[in-house]
Design goal:
By secondary structure, the chain is an alpha/beta fold. It has 32 helices and 24 strands. α5 crosses α6, α25 crosses α26 and α28 crosses α29. The structure holds iron/sulfur cluster. The site of iron/sulfur cluster has 13 residues, from α10.
């Protein structure tokens, strides 16, 4: 639906108009829908082949305007059949149905309301068309039972007229609400992100404005503590208030980041909420059923939704509130009305100016339907903010990857047989299962073998589309297998070289995407404008290539405002005594242990970052054995769910520990800034290069074949990016400083050093204990730790 609120004009197809609902609608599964469409088409052709003998003309295009409550609705469609008989125009719509025929009038009006509305809309357009100057119109719904071919002809009389009046009212109400929402935005008032601009922010709003005048894509690279989130909200709210865009989407990869973004947004909106927002959470978080299984046959919160939507209690939560209600309250209210809270959220989104969500809601084919199916979501009128943008390529690559398990495929094949699906489909599934089992652990597939798998997947996906399958009866496990087959299969078929097939365990085939730049670019192309936020884009060429931004019609503008407080804030040294490569790791641990102890003796509490939990565990064990008097706090493998939990961990660690063991790439190294200004020394043990495995090796070859430095792209860049991220969290404001020891001689390699952010590149070298002591001696030169 295209809506021009200022002109009060909406353009849509007759089908869209007929099926419009201001509430979320559960669509039948794509596969079943495609099958129904294929069968429906066959029956259409069968009926239409008799058109001549009946005096009908097939497929007549029609378009026109219907004025309603101040709006002009521009509709267009194609009528299946039309004929003139006795000075009367007879329009017929042919529809296949799954239920049994014949049906009485009320059942048709209730079960097939959309079809009736489609015909009634055609009649409205015919009446207004100069091509059909008739006084009398006859509209016929021609139903065909798809399994038997039994037909029922049903003429819609005047008793159906209220349906179209009600539908026009519904659409006009919805459009009025949208217009009201946009008008309200014209008077949107909000605070500046910072009453007094921080250093480097002085001209940022005008810089952003002029950058967006030159390109739709702007990259804002600024260190932690700069205030990128606040600055981006301020710019986005200006765009909303001026009418340049109709909506903002803010995406970030971690839930903590989403909560922090919302907190910042609330500060800008103060207490007058002229702009409304919603924090999008996943289905499972919304679930109120005893079993998380979203089938209308099993979950009572999905049944009879049309009727339940009119319940009064939900309306204010969905329509009126500018802020989303607390999740538990939202769940309780919806459960009381018998409605799945996730479905209620789907409805509420349409009425919100700002959506805050995880990347997946745009960049994962399994989750992006939530936004894609919103009736008035138009990317061309939307400002997109992508936070922690350096994480985007790896996340989309992971979303585009899949895992095929031969046992799961066998189970799905058996279920399909039981459900009466075509035997060929089960056979295709078993053949794919056999292909998965044909390889042994550690094998990697050649491009040709992967091509064959991609072909098999496409055949299966197409076969599903043409099969009458009762998806509600398939077990959740098999449903997961099924969706796993479908998602990303087209991309694999189009660009097999961007995927690697490999066998992590016998019977399991992993298909890992190593380049999702085409998917990212295609998604971004549709947006009005897009702002990327990150602390580290370095090296920028790699980022542009990984996101496909180097292939856009406009060159992205890179803004990197000054951050003078970082000058001299880091006192960095590289410990050349140690080799942390895997085969030398055990030998180096005693030096690592003694170095940690020396640092802790002088500047406790200190933070020590490791590339893995296993590495941290080994060092901790030796430290505890040799120096049991240190108090050590360790990040555990179990994720701390909430910001409060993480804050409590850091707070306790800072108060009661000498040494805090953390993991690079985890939420304490990215997205959580609680250590900023609170510790005076940090040690990074090893550049966190990814482990050597078939995927990384393939990546290396892939980039090498594109005349790039494969090792740098596959190993160095992701590893050093984690180090840059972790160090960046430690100095957040003027006056803060930290001593950072990078332990491993590999940090001194020219290429590796060049990937470190500017402020860490100037460093000292530790070749022996005296050097370390000298460097530590300089501790007195930096400011005393902040009081906690
Ligand atoms: S439909 Fe909603 S309430 Fe029902 S199982 Fe799914 S998430 Fe839970």
């Amino acid at each position: 639906m295209e809506i021009d609120a200022s002109d009060k004009r909406a353009t849509m197809s007759v089908g869209e108009f007929a099926s419009f609902s201001p509430y979320a609608k559960r669509e039948e599964s794509k596969g079943l829908g495609a099958w129904r469409a294929a069968v429906g088409q066959q029956w259409h052709q069968e009926v239409q082949s008799h058109a001549d003998s009946e005096g009908f003309e097939n497929e007549q295009s029609i378009s026109g305007e219907i004025p309603w409550h101040g709006w002009t609705l521009q509709l267009k469609g194609r009528i299946d059949q039309i004929r003139v008989q006795n000075n009367e125009l007879h329009a017929r719509e042919i529809k296949t149905v799954s239920g049994h025929l014949p049906l009485d009038r009320d059942s048709i009006a209730q079960k097939y309301k959309d079809y009736c509305l489609q015909l009634l809309s055609y009649r409205e357009l015919l009446q207004r068309s100069k091509r059909y100057p008739f006084d009398s119109f006859r509209i016929e719904l021609y139903l065909i039972e798809f399994s038997t071919g039994i037909t029922q002809s049903f003429i819609l009389d005047a008793s159906f007229d209220h349906l179209i009046v009600d539908q026009l009212d519904r659409v006009a109400d919805y459009l009025d609400q949208k217009r009201e929402r946009l008008e309200k935005l014209r008077s949107l008032k909000f605070k500046s992100a910072y009453a007094t601009p921080r250093q480097g922010q002085e001209t940022i709003q005008s810089d952003l404005k002029s950058a967006f005048n030159r390109s739709r894509i702007v990259l804002l690279e600024a260190p932690t503590g700069y205030g990128k989130t606040g600055v981006s909200w301020e710019h986005g709210l200006h765009k909303l208030a001026s009418g340049e865009v109709e909506r903002i989407i803010y995406l970030t990869s971690k839930k903590t980041g989403q909560l922090e973004a919302i907190e910042r947004l609330n500060m800008l909106l103060a207490d007058q909420y002229a702009a409304s927002y919603w924090h999008i959470r996943n289905k499972e978080e919304h679930c109120v059923n005893s079993e998380f299984r979203c089938s209308s046959k099993i979950c009572p919160y999905l049944s009879d939704l049309e009727r339940k939507w009119d319940t009064a209690a939900l309306q204010p939560l969905i329509l009126a509130e500018a802020k989303p209600p607390p999740l538990e309250q939202f769940k309780t209210t919806n459960a009381a009305d018998g409605i799945c809270p996730y479905e209620a959220m789907r409805t509420a989104l349409s009425y919100r100016d700002i959506w805050v969500a995880d990347y997946n809601y745009l960049f994962s084919s399994s989750s992006s339907r939530l936004l894609g199916e919103q009736p008035d979501f138009d990317p061309a009128k939307t400002f997109l903010i992508i936070d922690e943008a350096h994480n985007l390529p790896s996340r989309v690559e992971s979303n585009s990857s899949k895992e095929l398990r031969s046992l799961a495929l066998e189970a799905l094949a058996s279920e399909l047989t039981e459900l009466g699906a075509d035997n060929r489909l089960s056979a295709q599934m078993r053949s794919l299962a056999d292909e998965c089992s044909a390889y042994g652990k550690g094998d990697t597939l050649s491009l040709r073998q992967l091509d064959d798998i991609a072909d098999s997947l496409m055949i299966i996906v197409k076969s599903f589309a043409n099969q009458p399958i009762d998806y509600d009866s398939i077990s959740p496990e098999s449903m997961d297998t099924l969706w796993g087959l479908a998602y990303g299969s087209t991309a694999m078929n189009e660009r097999p070289e961007c995927f690697l097939g490999w066998i992590p365990e016998n019977g399991i085939l992993k298909i890992t995407c190593i380049d999702a730049s085409t998917e990212i670019r295609r998604t971004l192309e549709a947006f009005h404008s897009c702002l990327f936020l990150t602390a580290t884009l370095h090296p920028i060429d790699g980022f542009l290539e990984q996101t496909g931004l180097d292939r856009l019609d406009q060159t992205p503008i890179h803004l990197s405002p000054p951050a003078p407080w970082l000058n001299k804030a880091y006192d960095v040294a590289i410990d050349m005594r140690v080799d942390t490569r895997f085969k030398y790791r055990d030998k180096s641990i005693p030096t690592t242990v003694s170095t940690i102890a020396q640092l802790a003796d002088r500047i406790a509490p200190i933070a020590v970052f490791f590339p893995s939990y296993a590495y941290a565990d080994k060092v901790k064990q030796q430290l505890e054995e040799t120096r049991p008097f240190y108090r050590i706090a360790s990040q555990t493998r179990k994720q701390l769910e909430t910001i409060e939990d993480r804050a409590a961990f850091i707070d306790e660690a800072l108060r009661f520990s000498d040494i805090i063991f953390l993991t690079l790439g985890s939420s304490f190294a990215e997205g959580v800034d609680m250590l900023g200004g609170k510790i005076k020394a940090v040690m990074v043990v090893s550049p966190a290069l990814p482990e050597v495995n078939p995927v990384q090796q393939y990546k290396r070859e892939y980039y090498k074949n594109r005349n790039q430095d494969g090792f740098e792209r596959a190993y160095l860049q992701p590893g050093i990016q984690k180090v840059n991220q972790a160090l960046g969290r430690l100095v957040r404001a003027p006056g803060q400083s930290v001593k950072a020891l990078l332990q491993c001689h590999r940090f001194a390699d020219t290429k590796t050093r060049s990937l470190l952010a500017n402020q860490y590149r100037e460093c000292n070298y530790i070749f022996n204990d005296d050097d370390l002591n000298d460097w530590l001696e300089r501790e007195s030169q930096i400011n005393p730790p902040q009081k906690i």
